């Protein structure tokens, strides 16, 4: 039995759990997948939006701006890569210039510093932008974040401070049992809690419906992306946006914290919340719109395409509130863009404005907001590398040549309180397999290390999701019918 049970371990759920772990509470985190951050958080643009775009007065506007301001401290405490590169929202036609003016006014209402740029100023900052550009809105506080290590390290910090994480636990029913909730999972395990916080991402509507009817709907909207190799550092220095539309912020071109470039997303309604497929017509349209902004994008450098779904609410705003029938059930639904940028502020908001109303919150004297710092060979000098390798030779054995990830870095992740137990989990933490060959060379080595560490037979190791075995049979062995 727990005081608080958080359903969903994406960025929002993990940061809420971390915030709760600073109090004298018993906390459980239930995640239906084999690793944290495996849903909406994993497949997005990884942008810390400045907050100029949301409609003033909405939760999106309030929490985006607050969350943006919190990220420097969050990144320092949780050892997450953050780069304040700034963003440019560009006007390519004269008739779009008044829209830039409107966005500038909205920025002031939201309290976001921006600057309107002339054509000359835009091209001085970004020479590869379409030379016909008419102007842009520069938002210096926008940034890039590592969307993989953010939920992992937030959840790790929560666990280090006493929270309990339960993976592969898909919630199938929630029933009130006196003063407690009985939360039953597909595994038949039942967890009891005084308070439930619903952070189930695109499935938060279904979780909410387990206790009452809801007056909103989450529409799954799929976004398809290109990912380009880190072939150069001169394509763009900032995140480049078109003017936003009713579908969202539009097709962006942006660097990432990993040194690659991301182009996308599309924004099409899909009938399946699990549909993360890509298709040529959609990607061709993404390419067309991106080339209109940055004509020199080298699409021959694409190393993969991918897609993610986001929960677009019919309310057009974040839905963060008590359940109407029970104040001990708190829901966080419709957390679409700018959800990642807002996530630290959402955590503060949920705990301060909702949990505090139903539970007595007493601060822990021994709460530690920091995670253990990781070794990052890619950012070390030659002298630092040589010293480290002399003391720990495993850091001199490169497992992933594309991303220059060492055996030592992978072994170090196994020491975490939220260790990687699948191929994708290792990728998200270390970037091993994220490079040009997409794991073609390092996958067997990573598989070997997971097998050795956790004593799992090679044919039982998963790539990511249930039944996604990377090597189900021995070479030339045929499965019996």
Features:
481 residues, alpha+beta, FAD/NAD(P)-binding domain, D-Amino Acid Oxidase, Chain A, domain 2, Arc Repressor Mutant, subunit A, 3 domains, eight-stranded mixed β-sheet, five-stranded antiparallel β-sheet, 22 strands, globular
Question: What structural class do you assign from the helix and strand content?
Answer: alpha+beta
* Biggest sheet layout: 8 strands, mixed
**Overall domain count:** 3
Number of helices: 12
Q: Can you give the helix content as a percent range?
A: 25-40%
Overall geometric form: globular
Rounded mean pLDDT score: 95
Radius of gyration: 23 Å
CATH architecture of the largest domain: 3-Layer(bba) Sandwich
Number of strand segments: 22
Q: CATH first level of the largest domain: which class?
A: Alpha Beta
Q: Give start-end ranges of low-pLDDT stretches.
A: none
Give the distance, in angstroms, between the N- and C-terminal Cα atoms.
44 Å
CATH topology descriptor of the largest domain: FAD/NAD(P)-binding domain
Strand fraction equals 15-25%
């Amino acid at each position: 039995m727990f005081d608080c049970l958080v359903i969903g371990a994406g960025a929002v759920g993990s940061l809420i759990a971390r915030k709760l772990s600073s109090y004298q509470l018993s906390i459980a985190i239930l995640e239906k997948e084999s690793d944290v951050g495996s849903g909406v958080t994993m497949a997005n643009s990884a942008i810390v939006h400045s907050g100029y775009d949301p409609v003033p007065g909405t939760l999106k506007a309030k929490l985006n701006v607050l969350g943006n301001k919190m990220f420097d401290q969050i990144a320092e405490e949780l050892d997450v890569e953050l780069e304040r590169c700034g963003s440019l929202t560009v006007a390519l036609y004269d008739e779009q210039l008044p829209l830039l003016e409107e966005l500038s006014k909205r920025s002031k209402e939201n309290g976001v510093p921006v600057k309107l740029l002339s054509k000359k100023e835009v091209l001085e900052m970004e020479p590869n932008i379409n030379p016909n550009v008419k102007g842009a809105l520069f938002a210096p506080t926008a940034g890039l974040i590592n969307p993989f290590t953010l939920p992992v390290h937030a959840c790790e910090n929560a666990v280090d401070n006493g929270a309990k994480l339960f993976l592969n636990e898909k919630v199938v029913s929630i029933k009130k049992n006196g003063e407690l909730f009985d939360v039953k999972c597909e595994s038949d395990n039942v967890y009891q809690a005084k308070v439930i916080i619903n952070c189930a991402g695109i499935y938060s509507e279904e979780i909410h419906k387990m206790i009452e009817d809801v007056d909103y709907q989450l529409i799954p909207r799929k976004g398809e992306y290109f990912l380009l190799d880190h072939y150069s550092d001169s394509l763009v220095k900032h995140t480049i946006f078109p003017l936003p539309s009713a579908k969202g912020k539009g097709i962006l071109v942006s660097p990432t914290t990993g040194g690659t470039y991301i182009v996308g997303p599309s924004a099409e309604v899909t009938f399946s919340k699990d549909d993360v497929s890509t298709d040529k017509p959609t990607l061709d349209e993404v390419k067309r719109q991106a080339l209109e902004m940055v004509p020199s994008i080298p699409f021959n450098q694409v190393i993969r395409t991918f897609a993610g779904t986001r929960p677009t609410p019919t309310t057009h705003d974040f839905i963060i509130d008590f359940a109407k029938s029970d104040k001990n059930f708190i829901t966080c639904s419709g957390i679409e863009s700018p959800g990642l940028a807002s996530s630290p502020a959402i955590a503060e908001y949920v705990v301060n404005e909702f949990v505090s109303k139903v539970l007595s919150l007493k601060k822990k004297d021994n709460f530690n907001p920091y995670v253990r710092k990781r070794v990052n060979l890619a950012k070390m000098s030659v002298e630092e590398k040589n010293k480290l390798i002399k003391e720990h030779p495993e850091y001199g054995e490169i497992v992933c040549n594309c991303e220059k990830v060492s055996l030592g870095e992978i072994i170090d992740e196994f020491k975490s309180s939220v260790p990687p137990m699948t191929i994708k989990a290792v990728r998200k933490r270390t970037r091993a397999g994220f490079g040009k060959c997409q794991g073609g060379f390092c996958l067997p080595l990573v598989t070997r290390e997971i097998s050795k560490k956790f004593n799992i037979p090679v044919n039982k190791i998963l790539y990511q999701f249930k039944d996604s075995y990377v090597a189900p049979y021995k070479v030339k062995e045929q499965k019996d019918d």
